[in-house]
Design a protein that fits this description.
Layout lengths: L2 E8 L8 E9 L3 H6 L10 H14 L2 E7 L1 H9 L4 H16 L3 E5 L5 H10 L7 E5 L7 H24 L12 H12 L12 H18 L1
Parallel strand pairs: 1-4, 4-5
Antiparallel strand pairs: 1-2, 2-3
Helix pairs in contact: 2-6, 4-5, 7-8
């Protein structure tokens, strides 16, 4: 039977924690079961619903694959001139190479879908399947929606674990979250060498500049 799979990411823009890529593959006759399980774009689901539906996805799917890249690895690659799009293409390419055949739907991170498609194929030696790349597929394609849920649940667990081991309160990891910003400020002020923060992010640069300005103001 032909494998039909969706691929999506979680944590692309986060300042704390890893970027996670997930692929969910099913047989065509199984697609309606994903819809019945409540699959939709992960952003439209509560955390509790995502965890529950992720368990259903793992029971239904023939293939569930994840890849992750840490904050420190992202910083290292970006320092070498590797774009975030290229990092995602590398991770997705490794999944395509492993499965080689099938129909894969990918939610494009680039407005130029064909450019992102070719980027992924460069990192997918041996892939002989069909690769369909579109924007906003997580909103319309059940397989991509399922992948978005798996990726989000895994990323949330990873961030919770990182924060817990560091004795820090929970947060989303996104710079739009005030709790996340406070944690990053705390880590910078303490001189922490933690590798959970993406130090190449502009958010970190702005926080550093703000803290330095505050220190200068107090000195003056």
């Amino acid at each position: 039977m032909v494998l039909i799979a969706g691929v999506d990411e979680a944590g692309r823009g986060c300042v704390i924690g890893p970027l996670v890529i997930a692929a969910v593959g099913v047989e065509e006759k199984t697609v309606p079961r994903l819809v019945e399980a409540g699959v939709k774009d992960s952003k439209r689901l509560s955390p509790r619903s995502r965890v529950r539906i992720a368990s259903s996805i793992r029971r239904i799917a023939r293939v569930v694959e994840t890849r992750r890249v840490s904050a420190s690895r992202i910083d290292s690659l970006r320092a070498k001139g590797v774009s975030l799009n290229e990092i995602e293409a590398m991770l997705i390419g490794s999944i395509l190479s492993k499965h080689r055949r099938g129909v894969f739907y990918v939610d494009s991170v680039d407005r130029d879908c064909e450019r992102f498609r070719m980027m992924m194929l460069r990192h997918a030696p041996g892939f002989k399947g069909v690769l369909i790349v579109r924007n906003y597929l997580d909103e319309s394609n059940p397989m991509v929606g399922a992948a978005s849920i798996i990726a989000k649940v895994e990323r949330d667990r990873a961030v919770k674990s990182l924060l817990g081991k560091a004795g820090l309160p929970e947060c989303s990891g996104y710079s739009s979250d005030p709790r996340t910003v406070r944690i990053v400020e705390q880590l910078i002020q303490s001189g922490s060498k933690t590798r959970m923060v993406r130090r190449s992010w502009s958010t970190v640069g702005r926080i550093r500049a703000s803290l330095n300005q505050d220190s200068l103001s107090r000195f003056l």
